[in-house]
Design goal:
The chain is mainly alpha-helical and about 180 residues long. The protein has two domains: about 30 residues; about 100 residues, no CATH class. It is built from seven helices and no strands. It starts with a helix and ends in a 19-residue tail after the last helix.
Length: about 180
Amino acid sequence: MTEETSANKKNRPTPKRKEAEAARKVNALAPATTKEGRKRQKELSRSARAEARVAYMRGDENALPVRDRGPAKRWVRNYVDSRRTIGEYFMPLIFAVLILTVIPNKYVQLAAIFFMYAVMLYTFVAGFIMTRKIRKEVELRFPHEPTKGVGLYGFLRSTQMRRMRAPSPQVKRGDSF
């Protein structure tokens, strides 16, 4: 052997696998968990998420994200949920337009596309009017609440199908609140 290779020797025995693995452990602060402990923790986490989801859909103030909290946002949700809007029927109407465009008659296809654009235009115009009405009403009812974004919040909620809204509607259509 040359002097170079002998200088690179470590001059100690190779550690056992058990010792090497123990030396590599980084997270010594984490508690050692058993398979049953991990399973129990996973089940607790799952049930906590399910309870939080139910509370969110019920409209509990503590379970709502920041964008949905406050009396003004609750009023906007109730205002939108108590009315029928064309926006909530937009997706089913688009599906009907899609079916109509498959028909090999160019007049039916053209009428379907024209209908789609007319519904879209009407949705945006009605949404614009509704956002202005919502902002004015929130300013009157909740003078100390910020009105930034409440109109858009109401418009976006009105474009969702009623069954798909989250949190779930708390009022019936036509109810006064």
